[in-house]
């Protein structure tokens, strides 16, 4: 988790210092930051999940661990981290395309202007004074329809990622900590044993917290796509 937090520093720096902007850019980076903070807070109740899993077994630690692995059949936190990384990639993907657009426009202007000779020396003063070299650029989606299509695909990808994550949280992870007794019986540990997860309320609250943020991103993504299509395509 510390690596994710440290890895966000250059991302935030690039968001602040970038010279190419588009509508909604700062908001998506804000969602990315809120998503990471929520993920960090939600990790806390799950940090000692193995110790929080108890069964009515006093003499056999092996069977308790077997029941634990049977109930928690996938690492929750690894899945949460992976989903965040995929969401972050969908945000950074748009940054790659905006950089490529600015680079293409810059190269096109250099070809158009070309080097200027002053006293036999080559000067690029005209090129360097062009707005693309020194000023921030706002992408005009009215003209850059291909960039608009890429942007909408990125937003759609975010909605799909967060919608899938929301479904996993509510339909798969939440029932694992619903405070009901867990019956465990396997070939190696026939039992049956009764198990429970301590601090289940805190764990459920962490899931609700992540679910609320993911749900907000899904709703905002769809409204943003509808607005963008109406504003840039329908109204032109």
TrEMBL record:
The keyword Heme does not apply. GO terms for cellular component: connexin complex. It holds the Pfam family Connexin. InterPro entries: Connexin, Connexin_N, Connexin_N_sf. It is found in: Cell membrane. Residues 15-229 form the Connexin N-terminal domain. The chain crosses the membrane at residues 78-97, 148-172, 207-235. GO terms for biological process: cell-cell signaling. One of its GO terms (molecular function) is gap junction channel activity. Keywords: Cell membrane, Membrane, Transmembrane, Transmembrane helix. It is a multi-pass membrane protein. This is Connexin N-terminal domain-containing protein. It comes from Latimeria chalumnae (Coelacanth). The gene is GJZ1.
């Amino acid at each position: 988790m510390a690596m994710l937090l440290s890895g966000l520093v250059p991302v935030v720096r690039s968001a602040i210092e970038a010279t190419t902007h588009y509508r909604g850019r700062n908001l998506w980076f804000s969602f990315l930051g809120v998503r990471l903070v929520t993920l960090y807070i939600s990790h806390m109740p799950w940090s000692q999940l193995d110790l929080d899993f108890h069964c009515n077994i006093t003499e056999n630690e092996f069977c308790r661990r077997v029941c634990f692995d049977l109930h928690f059949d996938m690492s929750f936190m690894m899945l949460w981290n992976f989903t965040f990384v995929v969401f972050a990639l969908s945000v950074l993907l748009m940054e790659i395309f905006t950089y490529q657009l600015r680079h293409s426009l810059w190269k096109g202007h250099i070809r158009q202007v070309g080097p200027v000779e002053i006293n036999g020396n080559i000067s690029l003063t005209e090129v360097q004074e062009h707005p693309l070299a020194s000023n921030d650029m706002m992408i005009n989606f009215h003209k850059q329809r291909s960039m608009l299509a890429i942007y909408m695909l990125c937003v759609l990808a975010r909605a799909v990622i967060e919608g899938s994550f929301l479904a996993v949280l509510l339909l798969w992870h939440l029932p694992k900590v619903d405070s009901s007794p867990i019956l465990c019986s396997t070939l190696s540990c026939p039992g049956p044993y009764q198990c429970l997860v301590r601090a289940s309320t805190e764990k459920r609250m962490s899931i609700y917290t992540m679910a609320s943020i993911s749900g907000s991103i899904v709703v905002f993504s769809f409204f943003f796509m509808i607005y963008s299509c109406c504003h840039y395509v329908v109204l032109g």
